[in-house]
Protein backbone atom coordinates (compact mmCIF):
# COMPACT_ATOMS: atom_id res chain seq x y z
CA UNK A 1 0.00 0.00 0.00
CA UNK A 2 2.87 2.34 0.96
CA UNK A 3 4.77 1.38 -2.18
CA UNK A 4 1.61 2.02 -4.19
CA UNK A 5 1.27 5.52 -2.79
CA UNK A 6 4.95 6.22 -3.45
CA UNK A 7 4.65 5.05 -7.05
CA UNK A 8 1.55 7.15 -7.45
CA UNK A 9 3.42 10.22 -6.16
CA UNK A 10 6.32 9.57 -8.52
CA UNK A 11 3.89 9.15 -11.39
CA UNK A 12 2.24 12.49 -10.52
CA UNK A 13 5.62 14.22 -10.34
CA UNK A 14 6.60 12.78 -13.73
CA UNK A 15 3.27 13.78 -15.27
CA UNK A 16 3.80 17.30 -13.99
CA UNK A 17 7.36 17.33 -15.37
CA UNK A 18 6.03 16.15 -18.77
CA UNK A 19 3.58 19.07 -18.79
CA UNK A 20 6.35 21.55 -17.90
CA UNK A 21 8.60 20.17 -20.63
CA UNK A 22 5.77 20.33 -23.17
CA UNK A 23 5.16 23.99 -22.24
CA UNK A 24 8.86 24.72 -22.64
CA UNK A 25 8.84 23.03 -26.08
CA UNK A 26 5.84 25.12 -27.09
CA UNK A 27 7.64 28.33 -26.03
CA UNK A 28 10.81 27.32 -27.84
CA UNK A 29 8.91 26.43 -31.01
CA UNK A 30 7.15 29.78 -30.92
CA UNK A 31 10.42 31.68 -30.39
CA UNK A 32 12.04 29.69 -33.18
CA UNK A 33 9.14 30.29 -35.53
CA UNK A 34 9.24 34.07 -34.89
CA UNK A 35 12.98 34.21 -35.41
CA UNK A 36 12.72 32.15 -38.61
CA UNK A 37 10.22 34.65 -40.01
CA UNK A 38 12.35 37.62 -38.89
CA UNK A 39 15.45 36.02 -40.40
CA UNK A 40 13.67 35.28 -43.69
CA UNK A 41 12.56 38.95 -43.87
CA UNK A 42 16.08 40.17 -43.09
CA UNK A 43 17.57 37.89 -45.78
CA UNK A 44 15.06 39.22 -48.31
CA UNK A 45 15.82 42.85 -47.30
CA UNK A 46 19.53 42.13 -47.58
CA UNK A 47 19.18 40.71 -51.11
CA UNK A 48 17.05 43.67 -52.19
CA UNK A 49 19.58 46.12 -50.78
CA UNK A 50 22.44 44.23 -52.46
CA UNK A 51 20.65 44.45 -55.82
CA UNK A 52 19.92 48.16 -55.31
CA UNK A 53 23.48 48.81 -54.20
CA UNK A 54 24.84 47.13 -57.34
CA UNK A 55 22.55 49.27 -59.50
CA UNK A 56 23.85 52.43 -57.79
CA UNK A 57 27.44 51.24 -58.30
CA UNK A 58 26.76 50.79 -62.03
CA UNK A 59 25.14 54.23 -62.17
CA UNK A 60 28.18 55.70 -60.38
CA UNK A 61 30.56 54.14 -62.93
CA UNK A 62 28.43 55.59 -65.73
CA UNK A 63 28.57 59.10 -64.23
CA UNK A 64 32.32 58.83 -63.62
CA UNK A 65 32.84 57.91 -67.29
CA UNK A 66 30.55 60.76 -68.42
CA UNK A 67 32.46 63.24 -66.25
CA UNK A 68 35.77 62.03 -67.67
CA UNK A 69 34.41 62.51 -71.22
CA UNK A 70 33.26 66.06 -70.44
CA UNK A 71 36.63 66.92 -68.90
CA UNK A 72 38.39 65.70 -72.02
CA UNK A 73 35.99 67.76 -74.14
CA UNK A 74 36.69 70.87 -72.04
CA UNK A 75 40.43 70.37 -72.59
CA UNK A 76 39.85 70.12 -76.37
CA UNK A 77 37.60 73.20 -76.39
CA UNK A 78 40.13 75.19 -74.34
CA UNK A 79 42.88 74.17 -76.71
CA UNK A 80 40.85 74.98 -79.83
CA UNK A 81 39.85 78.35 -78.41
CA UNK A 82 43.44 79.17 -77.55
CA UNK A 83 44.61 78.13 -81.04
CA UNK A 84 41.94 80.27 -82.63
CA UNK A 85 42.89 83.30 -80.52
CA UNK A 86 46.55 82.85 -81.46
CA UNK A 87 45.67 82.62 -85.16
CA UNK A 88 43.51 85.72 -84.83
CA UNK A 89 46.29 87.66 -83.16
CA UNK A 90 48.78 86.59 -85.84
CA UNK A 91 46.40 87.51 -88.65
CA UNK A 92 45.58 90.94 -87.24
CA UNK A 93 49.16 91.86 -86.43
CA UNK B 1 0.59 -6.49 -6.87
CA UNK B 2 -1.03 -6.11 -10.29
CA UNK B 3 -1.72 -2.43 -9.60
CA UNK B 4 1.89 -2.01 -8.52
CA UNK B 5 3.15 -3.46 -11.77
CA UNK B 6 0.82 -1.22 -13.75
CA UNK B 7 2.00 1.90 -11.90
CA UNK B 8 5.58 0.84 -12.43
CA UNK B 9 4.94 0.49 -16.17
CA UNK B 10 3.27 3.88 -16.32
CA UNK B 11 6.21 5.41 -14.41
CA UNK B 12 8.66 3.85 -16.89
CA UNK B 13 6.63 5.17 -19.82
CA UNK B 14 6.60 8.66 -18.29
CA UNK B 15 10.34 8.55 -17.53
CA UNK B 16 10.96 7.60 -21.15
CA UNK B 17 8.68 10.43 -22.33
CA UNK B 18 10.59 12.89 -20.13
CA UNK B 19 13.86 11.80 -21.74
CA UNK B 20 12.39 12.21 -25.23
CA UNK B 21 11.07 15.66 -24.40
CA UNK B 22 14.44 16.69 -22.92
CA UNK B 23 16.17 15.53 -26.13
CA UNK B 24 13.69 17.53 -28.17
CA UNK B 25 14.34 20.63 -26.03
CA UNK B 26 18.08 20.18 -26.51
CA UNK B 27 17.63 19.97 -30.30
CA UNK B 28 15.37 23.02 -30.34
CA UNK B 29 17.78 25.04 -28.20
CA UNK B 30 20.63 24.12 -30.52
CA UNK B 31 18.64 25.07 -33.63
CA UNK B 32 17.57 28.32 -31.99
CA UNK B 33 21.13 29.15 -30.94
CA UNK B 34 22.44 28.54 -34.50
CA UNK B 35 19.70 30.65 -36.02
CA UNK B 36 20.30 33.45 -33.50
CA UNK B 37 23.98 33.56 -34.51
CA UNK B 38 23.10 33.43 -38.22
CA UNK B 39 20.51 36.18 -37.76
CA UNK B 40 22.95 38.36 -35.81
CA UNK B 41 25.51 37.99 -38.61
CA UNK B 42 22.90 38.81 -41.24
CA UNK B 43 21.79 41.91 -39.34
CA UNK B 44 25.41 43.06 -39.07
CA UNK B 45 25.97 42.44 -42.82
CA UNK B 46 22.78 44.32 -43.60
CA UNK B 47 23.84 47.36 -41.54
CA UNK B 48 27.29 47.37 -43.17
CA UNK B 49 25.76 47.15 -46.64
CA UNK B 50 23.31 49.95 -45.78
CA UNK B 51 26.18 52.18 -44.67
CA UNK B 52 28.18 51.36 -47.81
CA UNK B 53 25.14 51.90 -50.01
CA UNK B 54 24.56 55.34 -48.46
CA UNK B 55 28.20 56.27 -49.10
CA UNK B 56 27.85 55.24 -52.77
CA UNK B 57 24.63 57.27 -53.02
CA UNK B 58 26.43 60.36 -51.69
CA UNK B 59 29.29 59.76 -54.14
CA UNK B 60 26.76 59.43 -56.96
CA UNK B 61 25.16 62.77 -56.04
CA UNK B 62 28.62 64.38 -56.01
CA UNK B 63 29.42 63.05 -59.51
CA UNK B 64 26.01 64.10 -60.84
CA UNK B 65 26.63 67.65 -59.59
CA UNK B 66 30.16 67.67 -61.05
CA UNK B 67 28.81 66.49 -64.42
CA UNK B 68 26.16 69.21 -64.36
CA UNK B 69 28.85 71.84 -63.66
CA UNK B 70 31.01 70.59 -66.55
CA UNK B 71 28.02 70.63 -68.91
CA UNK B 72 27.29 74.23 -67.95
CA UNK B 73 30.95 75.11 -68.51
CA UNK B 74 30.89 73.45 -71.96
CA UNK B 75 27.83 75.54 -72.87
CA UNK B 76 29.67 78.72 -71.77
CA UNK B 77 32.82 77.75 -73.68
CA UNK B 78 30.79 76.93 -76.80
CA UNK B 79 29.03 80.27 -76.55
CA UNK B 80 32.24 82.21 -75.98
CA UNK B 81 33.94 80.46 -78.88
CA UNK B 82 31.02 81.19 -81.18
CA UNK B 83 30.97 84.87 -80.10
CA UNK B 84 34.68 85.14 -80.73
CA UNK B 85 34.36 83.58 -84.19
CA UNK B 86 31.53 85.99 -85.06
CA UNK B 87 33.63 88.97 -83.89
CA UNK B 88 36.57 87.68 -85.91
CA UNK B 89 34.45 87.32 -89.03
CA UNK B 90 33.01 90.80 -88.59
CA UNK B 91 36.41 92.36 -88.04
CA UNK B 92 38.01 90.66 -91.04
CA UNK B 93 35.15 91.41 -93.44
Overall description:
- Two copies of one chain form a homodimer.
- Chain A contains one helix and no strands.
- Chain A is rod-shaped, with a radius of gyration of 40 Å.
- By secondary structure, the first copy, chain A, is mainly α.
- The first copy, chain A, has one helix spanning 2-91.
- Chains A and B meet through helix 1 of A and helix 1 of B.
Short summary:
The structure is a homodimer of 93-residue chains. The first copy, chain A, is mainly alpha-helical and 93 residues long.
Task: List its traits.
93 residues; homodimer; rod-shaped; mainly alpha
> What is the number of helices of chain A?
1
Q: Which consecutive residue ranges of chain A, at least 5 long each, have pLDDT under 50?
A: none
Q: Oligomeric status of the shown chains?
A: homodimer
Order of helices and strands of chain A: H
Largest sheet of chain A: none
Biggest interface, chains and residue tallies: A-B, 51 and 51 residues
- The rough form of chain A would be described as rod-shaped
End-to-end separation of chain A in angstroms reads: 135 Å
Mean pLDDT of chain A: 93
Strand portion of chain A: under 5%
**Rg over CA atoms of chain A:** 40 Å
**Residue share in helices of chain A?**
over 70%
Number of strands of chain A: 0
Structural class of chain A: mainly alpha
What is this structure's SSE topology?
Two copies of one chain form a homodimer.
Chain A: H1 2-91
